[in-house]
């Protein structure tokens, strides 16, 4: 991971994505082409993409995340002596799925590298050598771990409350459907299976089944940690 990217991650994590601001502002709102500029270059700097994703993520509110944060706050204020009521259980993705990866294709409309036409990219492509470990970006349960059409070797993780992450084009899987994983667990390894031009990870975040910009979910924040813990809770591809 280059120095510029490390510096950007530290700056964003320390200030811009602070606590309740992110939850109230909703990463889910950033579901437009936040990194269109990065698509113009196959070697775009992920720092720019994070900044753009942040700007859109903070632009407007999202009812689901306000509700989840309110539920966590109510549980925290209730204390151990209060009656136990059912709370939404969710673990918010809040880390990079790869270490030292290079962004090669961003979220949103792009020139498809295989189909050779304009198409909406449902996630981001992170290039890395074949065999690079792929990490779960939040706690959850493995929904699927097998070959899935153009995704190739593929994993989907249910993080609760209709929040899901997807990982595609892997060379090998390290988990099976039904497994419980923790944030940071190795779930597979980078490859180029399915519709792919070279070794990379295609990474998606979905809310209620709809793909949203993953960039705001790739930096850990105080609000995400609170919501997760206190409720216990060069290649490119064709998606």
Automatic annotation (TrEMBL):
What Gene3D superfamilies does the annotation carry?
A: Glucose Permease (Domain IIA) (2.70.70.10)
Annotated M23ase beta-sheet core domain residues: 120-214
Bilayer-crossing residues are none
Q: Which key words tag this protein in UniProt?
A: Signal
* InterPro entries membership: Cell_wall_metabolism_enzyme, Dup_hybrid_motif, M23ase_b-sheet_dom
Say which domain of life the source belongs to. Bacteria
Fetch the Pfam families from UniProt.
Answer: Peptidase_M23
Name the SUPFAM superfamilies on file. Answer: Duplicated hybrid motif (SSF51261)
Which stretch is the leader sequence?
A: 1-36
Gene Ontology molecular function terms on file:
metalloendopeptidase activity
Name used for this protein in its record: M23 family metallopeptidase
């Amino acid at each position: 991971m280059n120095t510029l990217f490390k510096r950007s991650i530290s700056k964003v994590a320390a200030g811009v994505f602070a606590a309740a601001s992110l939850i109230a502002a909703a990463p889910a709102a950033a579901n437009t082409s936040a990194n269109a500029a990065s698509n113009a270059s196959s070697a775009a700097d992920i720092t720019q993409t994070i900044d753009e994703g942040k700007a859109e993520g903070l632009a407007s509110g999202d009812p689901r995340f306000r509700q989840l944060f309110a539920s966590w706050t109510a549980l925290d204020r209730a204390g151990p002596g209060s009656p136990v009521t059912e709370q939404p259980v969710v673990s918010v993705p809040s880390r990079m799925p790869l270490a030292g990866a290079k962004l090669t294709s961003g979220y949103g409309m792009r020139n498809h590298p295989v189909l050779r036409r304009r198409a909406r990219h449902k996630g981001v492509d992170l290039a890395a050598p074949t065999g690079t470990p792929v990490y779960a970006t939040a706690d959850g349960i493995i929904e699927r771990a097998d070959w899935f059409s153009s995704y190739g070797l593929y994993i989907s993780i249910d993080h609760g409350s209709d929040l899901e992450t997807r990982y595609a084009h892997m060379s090998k899987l390290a988990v099976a459907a039904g497994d419980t994983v923790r944030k940071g667990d190795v779930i597979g390894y980078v490859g180029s299976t399915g519709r792919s031009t070279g070794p990379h990870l295609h990474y998606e975040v979905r809310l209620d089944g709809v793909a949203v910009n993953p960039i705001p979910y790739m930096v850990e924040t105080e609000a995400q940690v609170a919501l997760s813990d206190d409720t216990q809770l060069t290649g490119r591809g064709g998606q």
